[in-house]
Every structure is written in C-alpha cells, then in structure tokens.
C-alpha cells in the first residue's frame, strides 16, 4: 500500500510583496482537522518568529540564509525530513525568501527521497503589479524564475496601484506561457484558502482560447499538448521536430513549448520563421502549443510522443 503524500505549497515572491502576510492569512483559515507544518526563511522583510506562530498550534521551522536552494539547501532537506517524520502532516507550506530561486526548491522537493513523500501542490508567487510591469524587474532572472514556476499568480498591494497599472498587470499575466491556473488581485495579501486545492493537472490535449488566435475569421487552427513531469524528451528529436514544423503545419504562425530534457527544463519558441531555446523555471509539466492554417493534430501528438526518451 502506498503512503499518502504530504501536499507541499511554495509561497514565493520578491522582497516586500507580502509573502509573510499571505501565509498568515492562510493559517487563519486553516481547517482544524488538517495537520500543517511550515518552513520559513529566517531573513525576511517581516520575518516569522516560531514563538509568535506557536499560538496557532502549527509546527514552524526557521532556516537561516537568503536562498532555500543555495545557502540553506542541505538544511532544508534535513528539516523537511524531520518535520514529515515528527508531524506526519497533510500539508507543508514553505515561505521562500525574496532571494530564493523557486525552481531550485521545487527540484529538491521532487528528488529522492522526497518524491515518495511529497506531492507538489499549488505553488504561489506574490507580486507587486508596479514591479511586475516594470522591465527593470521583469527582465531579472530571479524575478522571471519566481513568476515562471508558480501556478497561482497573486497581485498584492493593489490599493497602491493605478487602474492603468492593474490593467497592465492583467494584460501581461494573460500572455504568460505556460498559463497560470489562477491570476488574482488581493488586498493586504489576503489569500483564499480554497486556492490551495486549485487543480494543477492539465488535459493531455486542449484547444487554445479563441483570443489567442491571430484572427478568428481567417480559419486558424490551434492545439495544445501536455506531458507529465518526469517524462524526459530527447533533445535531438525535439530539434528535428522544430526544424520540420513548417512542413508539418501549413501556414505556421506560432509554436512554443516547455520541455523537460535530461532533467532540465527548456523553452522552445518558433516565431517569424525561426526558433530559439532558453532555460525556463516552469516545473509542472512539459507542454507544446501551435497555431497554423492547417495541420494533423494526431500526427503532431505522435511525433512528440516519439521524441520522448524510451
């Protein structure tokens, strides 16, 4: 009989966005019948002191160091194992510091022995919309990492934003790929506890939303495909697939995907007659989307399946 896995939620975000307040808001709504444990970075703009949280009856561990996957990496693993062993919780909530590379934390929690103990549930990133729409922030690797890895993107400090800034946030968030399971505006970093159970598993195949298409009157065809995390793709076969796409899809307009290749995650993007590759922080699944005048959706799916490592 397989043991029930503990659901783990990472709460990420840049410095000063309200991660600690967001975590406290979830704690205030906790079902008394659920067992939770919490890990937080010791250094934060507010900081959570274990003594303060002890009133909630939730075990809390503080880790020193600004980055869970770097400075505190070994300590994180030992702390998680101890808390799982001692408390046998239903949920583990981790508040990463504003300097944490969120994808690295997810990688560690998905690796043995944690892959048998933990289920990576909804991952949250809390942002200030004023920063989110500022290229000086948006182009930083750390900031992009935190945005890319999450399932739920939360805009906090909305009372300090203009209507134009909030509209810009939603417009930019709608263009993210892979798309988020939820994009939300909150005041004072108050999260809805129901968001912890937002479904994060996509259908194997799906149609793109109509607003994604260049012009619905021109008869464009679209399709999306997902593959579970843990399924590695062969890099050479993926390269060949993207090279052959213009022949496989008549009138190709756009093709993009994130793929797990040899344990790493890469973004492949075909636009304006050429494609490029870069690393990406997404960890939920591999997926591919394309828009073209005409293509055989089943053939595309078969070709992608054939590109999986056997």
TrEMBL record:
Cellular compartments per GO CC: cytoplasm
The organism's place on the tree of life at top rank: Bacteria
Stored Pfam families: cobW, CobW_C
Alphabetized SUPFAM superfamilies for the sequence: Hypothetical protein YjiA, C-terminal domain (SSF90002), P-loop containing nucleoside triphosphate hydrolases (SSF52540)
Domain CobW C-terminal positions: 222-308
Function: Zinc chaperone that directly transfers zinc cofactor to target proteins, thereby activating them. Zinc is transferred from the CXCC motif in the GTPase domain to the zinc binding site in target proteins in a process requiring GTP hydrolysis.
Protein name: Uncharacterized GTP-binding protein YjiA
Natural source organism: Kingella potus
